[in-house]
């Protein structure tokens, strides 16, 4: 074979190789385009699912906002009802106080001023002051003169027999035996 034949053969082989490369690239591009189309469809499907989930979340948020608004309305209604009940209770208390004032005014044993208000004679204040400890402690025995018990009842020199024989007070002597 001569040189011209070799050159023609090389040119033909090169053209065939270029044709094969061109075909392979075209097929590869088509496959890539097809793959990109499929990937785009998958992304669109995922976007549709995400959109649906987002709409569901928005609907839940709207329901929660509506529930919160309803709770506010219910709370306002309950406040109004409570205010109305408080007003009724105030009216009832005023009525009771008025009736008690009228009863005090009519009762000959109760001292009242000219407006019908009770007048204390000072004895109740003295009794409560005597029952309270002067040193601020909670021990009623330390502040009293021994005539009253913790609950304000008179103390007896001897324990009560009907209460089991003793009251548990250690500062009260036991009863003397009868002779």
TrEMBL record:
Stretches for region Disordered: 43-179
Listed Basic and acidic residues bias regions: 43-61, 69-126, 146-161
Keywords in alphabetical order: Membrane, Transmembrane, Transmembrane helix
TM region(s), chain numbering: 6-27
Annotated Low complexity bias: 127-136
Keyword presence, Membrane: yes
Protein name: Uncharacterized protein
């Amino acid at each position: 074979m001569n040189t011209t034949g070799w050159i023609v053969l090389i040119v033909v082989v090169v053209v065939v190789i270029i044709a094969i490369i061109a075909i392979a690239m075209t097929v590869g591009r088509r496959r890539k385009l097809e793959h990109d189309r499929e990937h785009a469809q998958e992304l669109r499907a995922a976007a549709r699912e995400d959109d649906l989930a987002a709409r569901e979340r928005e609907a839940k948020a709207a329901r929660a906002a509506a529930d919160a608004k309803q709770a506010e309305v219910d709370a306002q209604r309950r406040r109004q009802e409570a205010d109305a009940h408080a007003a009724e209770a105030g009216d009832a208390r005023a009525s009771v106080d008025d009736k008690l004032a009228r009863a005090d005014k009519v009762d000959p044993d109760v001292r009242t001023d000219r407006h019908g208000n009770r007048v204390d004679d000072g004895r109740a204040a003295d009794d409560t002051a005597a029952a309270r400890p002067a040193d601020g402690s909670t021990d009623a025995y330390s502040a009293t003169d021994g005539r009253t018990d913790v609950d304000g009842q008179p103390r007896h020199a001897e324990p009560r027999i009907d209460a089991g024989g003793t009251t548990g007070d250690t500062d009260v002597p036991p009863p003397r035996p009868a002779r």
